[in-house]
Amino acid sequence: MALAKLSVAEVEQFLRHEFPQAFSGDDITIESADGQTCLLRQRYSERMLRPGGTVSGPTLMALADFAMYVVLLSAIGPVGLAVTTNLNINFLRKGLPGQDVLAEARLLKLGKRLAVGEVKLLSGTSPDPIAHVTSTYSIPNV
Question: What positions does the domain Thioesterase occupy (predicted)?
Answer without folding.
Answer: 52-124
